[in-house]
Automatic annotation (TrEMBL):
Stored Pfam families: His_Phos_2
Identification of the protein by name: 3-phytase
Enzyme nomenclature, EC number: 3.1.3.8
Family: Belongs to the histidine acid phosphatase family.
Broadest EC class assigned to this enzyme: hydrolase
SUPFAM superfamilies attached to this UniProt entry: Phosphoglycerate mutase-like
Keywords: Hydrolase
Amino acid sequence: MTTLQPRPPYTDAELQKLYPPNLDLQLVQILMRHGERTPVSPRFQNTGLPPFWPYCTSVRQITSTILSPSSSSLTTLQWTRRLETFSRESDSPTLALSPTSHPDNICDMGTLTDLGRQTTSFLGARLRDLYITRLGFLPPAITSPSQIYLRTTPVPRALESLQQTFSTLYPPNTRLPSPETGIFPTPVIITRAHADETLYPNDGNCRRFAALSRAFAQRAADRHNNTPDMEYLNQLIGKWMDGGKVAVDSRPRLSGVMDTINATLAHGPETRLPKEFYDEKARGIIEKIGVEEWFQGYRESEEYRRLGIGGLVGDLVERMVKSVEGRGDGVRFGLLGCHDTTLAGMLASLGAFGTERWVPFTSHVAVELFRDNMKGEGKGGVVWGFGKEIGRRPAEELGEEEKKKLEGYYVRLRYNDEVVTVPGCRMEGRHLEGDESFCTLAAFKEIVDKFTPKNWKQECRMGRGETVSLPKVPEPAGY
């Protein structure tokens, strides 16, 4: 799937059902996929598809921070980026040009486009409408960003999407001067080094996960390469493939074909593939196989869940538990810039990704923590760190007093504004009475604990050189 078509805003009746009066919203964490982008590598130039796309006006006005060597003060430099490539005939340097031979607004590979900036800005506006205008959960204007936790992967399109979304969640006229300093404090955006990143499945820095990924990908190839569905694809687009054949592991891979289809479909007529690539049946086949190749491992293997997405989901739970414990500085809203593999990997690990369609650009998952307001006053607040208190300790290690702290709290997930339910929360006593989508915090934590790594880097080094065996019997997700 390509550009997301957001559902209409909730009606008043829907809103009242989604946010019942006996539950107080306490903490929201939004995981958002970046907006529309160019393909991550150039493909299908043999169809006439240009390698460089003219959809990035932001490169005409880039601002860099400059340190003055004499005074150590900071200034800024505005500059325009043009992209250089080289001639295939002579290797001579030449400017990358648009299909109409212009050198400006040229996107690099995997770059957030103007459309991607627009859709992520619209996401911020939708979040503002829900959590500020209609629910009153966040204040309409702020003098400090201290209530907002901003975190992103080190990939530029994720960072830029996060910036666009925050800028409409709180537009400039709602960011007011602090009474103490007379200025609005600079928001802090947290990133990690690639080697430490767990906000996406990090196969580049987790060898064990990479080996498991290859094994599940090979299984998908074995299952699908010689099937009527693949023959249908070959009849449509095989002539444009390297070697004349479409396969899960062809060149480009079937997932790479999907990447280019989705990126071109989101953008203008200057960057289109031949019409055969947009055949509805073909797109359904490609996305169904892609979802299996990339995400079936989360549905079937606890180790896959633990190494691929367990660190992230463990972080989410830890923040919720710290909010319950009242240890913190009042942060109530988290915005995390991530990727399609993050959203689908997390939902699949919780048994809540029940679709064969790929995650659209600018999709988001809302992880909401509620407090039963009939259970007494909650403490609120959260420390956004990585301590080892209740949050990171397995449920079976908690004492009775510690378990009592979690009572009266519920977790609910929404994917692109549609409620999803974790299957392990459907059991009696593990959800809000009358609504299985509100999982008790204790039950949600217990489910997540099973695939939260204790030492991710050490586990990533385990089994080096060993043959990878997939589970003989699937280990169901979400229980």
